[in-house]
Amino acid sequence: MTSRPPATTTLWRPTGPEELALVRELGWRAWPPRLPEQPIFYPVLNEEYAVKIALDWNVKHSGAGFVTRFEVETDFLSRYPVQQAGGRTILELWVPAEDLDEFNAHIVGTIEVVHEFRP
């Protein structure tokens, strides 16, 4: 009897160059711990929203913006209700910083950069 791989959900994360360097150091398989002023990790549920944040926030504040895509086990994500952070397509998950190690353990595959923006 063969077991099927777990169902996954695609998430996106807009990020700046500093966070992306830490992801690279982690072998593209995990997100780095949050800083004390970052109590929540915010992956988003659609690519368009991630692109908007990367362009409007990361490029302005960090000189570059990146959009990453990654898969997380769907069953695990069910503990985090989808948050509507504005319009109907502005959807996020709010993962408490203390859950990030467990969240990372449920990433399937690697974190990929799918867009890069510079001024």
TrEMBL record:
**Domain of life the protein comes from:** Bacteria
This chain's protein is named ADP-ribosylation/crystallin J1
Can you name the source organism?
Streptomyces davaonensis (strain DSM 101723 / JCM 4913 / KCC S-0913 / 768)
